[in-house]
Structure formats: C-alpha cells, structure tokens
Amino acid sequence: MPPTDKHQQLRNLPGVDHILENTKEDERFFEIPRKVILESIRSILESIRQDILDNHTAEIQDNSIIEQTLEAARERIKNRLVPVINATGVVLHTNLGRALLCQDALENIQTISQSYSNLELNLATGKRGIRYSAVEALICELTGAQSAIAVNNNAGAVLLALNTLAKDTEVVVSRGELVEIGGSFRIPDIMSKSGCHLKEVGTTNRTHLRDYEQAVTENTGLFLKVHTSNYKIEGFTASVGLAELSCLGRKKNIPVMEDLGSGTLIDFSKYGLPAEPLVSDSISSGADVVTFSGDKLLGGPQSGIIVGKRETIEKIKANPLTRALRIDKLTLGALEATLKLYRDEKQAIRKIPTLRMLTMSYDQTCKKSEALEKQIKKVIPTARVELADLESRPGGGSFPELKLPTRCITIRPENMSVARLEKSLRQASPAIIGRIEGNRYIIDPRTIQTGQDEIISTTLEKILLKK
Ligand SMILES: *Cc1c(COP(=O)(O)O)cnc(C)c1O
Questions:
Q1: CB burial class (10 A; 0-12, 13-18, 19+) of residue 435?
Q2: Domain 103-351, what architecture?
Q3: Which of 20, 154, 157, 450 is 20 to 30 Å from 56 by CA-CA measure?
Q4: What is residue 467's predicted lDDT score, i.e. its pLDDT?
C-alpha cells in the first residue's frame, strides 16, 4: 500500500463517537455496559489503525467495525470462571474444582446467603455466638473427637495447628512423610511459615519408634504424622503407627498431630475400594489433633477441619491466626448440610457426588458408556467410536495408585489429529475435558453428570462434522 493510501485510509477511519452512536440503536448492545462498549470500540479501532500502518488491508466500513466491537465486548463481559464437563474420570480433580457439592449443600448455601442468619449470635442467650458451633457438635459426633473447628482449607488447618502447638520448637517428622501436594503445599515450607523447626527422623523408606524417641530434646514441641496421600512407598518399609506414636507422646508429654490430607468418615473398603484412613480411627489412636480437607474424600466445600482433644482445640481457637483463616458462612452452610448426610451412610453415598462417583460399579460405567455411545452414533454415524475397558483415578491426593475399572468411550477421529480434537473440545462452550491415550481420545463416563451426554454428542458433531 503506497504511503498516501495509508494516510487516506487512516483519515477515513470512523471516530469512536460515530461508532458508539451506531451501537445505541442496536439491541444486541443493550445489555452491555457503555464503558465496555467504549473500551471495545477503542481497541478495535486501534488494531485497525495498526493493520493499516503495517500495510495489511483493513475493513473500515461501519458495519464491520460494529460486528467486531460486538464480538470484543461479548468477550470482555463473559465470565472467566465457567462450568466445564469433566470427562477425565478423575473424581477429585483439583484443576477442575475438586468435589461437586450435593444438592442439600447447594440449597443451604442459598438459604443462608439470601437471608440474615445466626452466624455469630447465640439465639438461646441473645449473646454473641461462635461461628463454628454450626458444625462442631456434628463433626464430633461423626469422628468421636472431643472438639472441632473448621477453617478455610486443610493447608490453613495444618499451618494453624503447627503454629499454635509448636511455634519456636522442634517438630519431629519422618523423612518418609515430607510430602508435597500439588506443588504449592510442602510440609517443610508450611513448617517454617508456621514458625516451627523441622526435625527429620528415620529414612525415606523406614522410620522406627526409636527414631522419634532419640530425636526428643527439651526443645521438642510436637510429633507430626503426615498421611502420604498422593504416593506410596513399597518394598522394604517401616513406619510408626499413630497409636504407638501417641503412646510415646504421652510418655514424653509431647502432643501428637496427624495431617490426614483427605481423611474419610466412611470405610471405603466396604465398597471394594482400598481402606483410606478414617478420621475416627486417628482420634481413637489417641492423637491430640487431626486435620483433614473438606473437599477431598469428604465431598464437601473447600475447608479444613481440625479435630482433637478439648484443651488442644481450645488453644487453636484462641490463636489470632484462626481469625485470618476463618471459614465463611456459605462454606459453613454447605459443610453442615454435607456432614448431616453422613449420619446415614447409604444416604451419604447416594447424595454426595464424590462418594457416588467413587463407588460407581464397573457395570454402571458400562451402562453410562453404552448410552453415550448410542447418542454419539446417532448424530455422527460414521464416527470411529468404540467402548474400551480402561481405568479412572480418584485424584485429589487420595487412594494413591488406585485405578477404578471403567468402561470408557474412545474416539479415533478421521479428519483431524487426536490432539486437535482434544483442543477443540477443551475450547468449546462448555469446555469438555477428556484425555488422550495413544491415538485415541478417551471420554470417561465416571465423572460425567446427568444431562451432559447430549452436550457432548452435539459438540462432537460440530467438531467432527465441521458444522
Ligand atoms: C490435600 C492435602 C493438604 C492440603 O489440603 P487443602 O484442603 O488442599 O488445603 C494437606 N495435607 C495433605 C496430606 C493433603 O493430602
């Protein structure tokens, strides 16, 4: 483009006000805030100006600019946090939001947030109440603990318990339990942030009671056990049980804490899954304090639950850090509603999505996959869709190594690569997140929710048939 043409084009470019005026009558812009429309017009005009300067051909008709503005404005106002379809089979997928809340929890969030509540008012006395009392008795009933408190998340619970019980003292931990969870939570780091000094004992694969015993000095403040929730050491191994360690703690007058990570209230071994540590077992082993997550195996909202002996929990409640980590009312409402379901285990399994998905039988996954396969073949008869016996993973740092037998859907696209199919599904609306194995795209039915089959098949139809 010769320079004179460039200048001519730049001069012909409409002004911001002119485009803005044009959007006023257009009802597609009615719902969009004026500020957003203005920003969008400016950015579109700027990019056209740049195109002209860079010698590209540019569309400078009003209509084209208005259409581009509309697209840019819609992009600006759309939510960034959006639902996605989890077709990975990973039940507790931290990147996809971990536990899905049960209906009771959702309803209670609405009830509690639409109205004022007795969050910190004791209705019996009319005096100031304690926010944790909504869940404390229930947690104690379900775990056998004397006292309990819930905070923002389990990382916070660990930080708070360490800081309360062992600030400026040595905390004895086995070398086999210095875990990292998801990169941002590492036992040595949380230890130093809580003001404690880590005293490692034993070796990676073997730690004995005498290792703990020999590590005790006048400056020892706590024995800590950490559930190695996301990996397993196999072979020539030895570790000290919580009951044994609690015994030593009593003898030496040193408190004992366990970070259970996921921690569960029901015995999964009854449902054909490996046994994950029960919170009630840790309590009856004599630990002074036990921490676990609300949104892992419990299947509730993000929260950290601290249970234990009365005096220990009282000290934790009095720590000023507790205020900084306090649980909000929505979470508290969701947690109470979820915990209530655990009074009847059958009901908990039926109503709490995490438990339902984890205990879903292989036969049930076959039924789900067959139905989805049929639905996909109905809209894309030519698709290379097959069923295959594969495995789902629990995720969320629970059940290390466990693979759940699942019948999955596999797709081998004909006119594009599997990587391309994965990307297109991920960028669809709603996004569908699956996995690739070899040259197949895998859709795992275990984590697909009711009503999502049709969305999956129509999205596949759009992508594979390029509609
Ligand atoms: C997951 C986990 C944590 C962190 O819990 P969040 O609820 O994610 O904060 C801490 N310790 C262990 C052992 C865990 O598995």
A1: middle
A2: 3-Layer(aba) Sandwich (3.40)
A3: 20
A4: 54
Whether residue 398 has its Cβ less than 6 Å from ligand 1: no
Given the structure tokens 């990147």, which residue do they identify? 95
- Distance of alpha carbon 126 from its chain centroid, rounded? 38
Q: Enumerate the CATH 3.40.640.10 domain ranges in the chain, comma separated.
A: 103-351
Q: List C-alpha distances in Å: 276 to 35, 122, 211, 293, 315.
A: 53, 37, 26, 13, 29
State the pLDDT at residue 183.
64
Q: How far is the CA of 198 from the centre of ligand 1 (A)?
A: 18
Q: Which amino acid is at 129?
A: G
Instruction: Ligand 1, residue 98: give the atom nearest the CA.
Output: 8
pLDDT value of position 179: 84
Helical spans, DSSP H, in 342-442: 345-351, 353-358, 362-379, 418-426
Ranges of residues in the chain with a pLDDT under 50 are none
**Cα-to-centroid distance, 74 and ligand 1 (Å):** 38
Would you say how long the chain is, in residues? 467
Q: What is the pLDDT of residue 7?
A: 86
Question: Where are any strands of DSSP class E within 90-247?
Answer: 147-151, 170-174, 180-181, 185-186, 197-201, 220-226
HSE at residue 271, side-chain half, CA atoms within 13 A, is 17
In this prediction, residue 3 carries a pLDDT of 62
Q: Does the domain formed by 84-92+358-464 have CATH 3.90.1150.180?
A: yes
How far apart, in Å, are the Cα atoms of 129 and each of 120, 133, 313?
4, 8, 17
